[in-house]
Amino acid sequence: MAKSVDEFNKKRLRSSNITVVISIALVLFLLGLMGLILINAQKYSDYIKEQLVVNAYFDENYDAKDSMKIAKQEQEAFKKIQTLAPVKRATYISREMAAKEAKKSMGIDSDALFEENIFPSSIEVALKPEYVDPAKIDEAIKVLKSVPGIVDVKNDSTLMVDVYNNLNRILRWILGFSVLFLVLAVVLINNSIRLKIFSKRFIIKTMQLVGAKRRFILKPFIIEAVVLGIIGSVIGLLALFGVWYYFTNAIGSSFVQDNQQYIWLVLLILGVGVFITVLSTVIATWRFLRTSVDDLYYS
């Protein structure tokens, strides 16, 4: 009879542990998924901002005899612009390249409509994402205009402001959902742990009544919580990266290549899983340690 009771208790304990681990894994999977979306959304936001370029133009009026001198000055200006703080990427466009691009955009194959070199040389500048900010774009343009040889800098400021504001709005929504999922992770994992500890409330109180110190009672529960937190986190991470790997292969893009960010995400998920599990265990166990025997039947 005693053996059957022990087996029943072991099965119930195993079932309880499995339930907690699955709960932790599912919650952390969703939290990690939001983290991956946030990381990639930030990277793609920066990528889109880098596609918003400004054009720095050189003087188009000079004597043909000074062409060698002017070409040298333009190359020096180009090298100077590449080193400026706001500049992410710069592309030099000669007069010949500008003429070819103009003919291509207008669908013209001959030179009959305009001379070869009617367009000035220029430098197409992609700014760093932080300088696409409407509050900093004027500063970046001022720096470009200060380069010797640059006579004008043009940009579509309205487009930049619209894109910047829309991207930031999307990122704020994603960040908000990530915080919401973090709160849900805390609540759901905490509830799973409380139910597990609730099933052991009489054991906890019995240990306390026979003279066991609170630290002694808490220790095995904390160790078990750490183990369950790690197992749940690992399962959640395996499921997360398995789904992400399948998704990226299906669409043919690997998204962010910065492994450091993925490492930080893994550490965050592990940390959240273990921390919440341990904290919930301590709070739930402490509650029953302070509860009277009579109240255990109504807790």
Offer a concise description of the structure:
With 299 residues, the protein is of the alpha+beta class.
Helix/strand order, N-terminal first: HEHEHEHEHHHH
The count of DSSP E runs of length 2 or more, i.e. the number of strands, is 4
Strand content: 5-15%
- Rg, please? 32 Å
The count of helical stretches stands at 8
Description:
It is a single chain. The protein is an alpha+beta fold and 299 residues long. The protein contains eight helices and four strands; from the N terminus they run H-E-H-E-H-E-H-E-H-H-H-H. It has helices at 2-50, 67-82, 95-106, 134-145, 157-198, 201-209, 214-251, 259-289; strands spanning 53-58, 87-93, 122-127, 150-154. The chain has a four-stranded antiparallel β-sheet with strand order 2-3-1-4. Helix 1 (2-50) runs antiparallel to helix 8 (259-289), helix 5 runs parallel beside helix 8 (259-289) and helix 7 packs antiparallel against helix 8 (259-289).
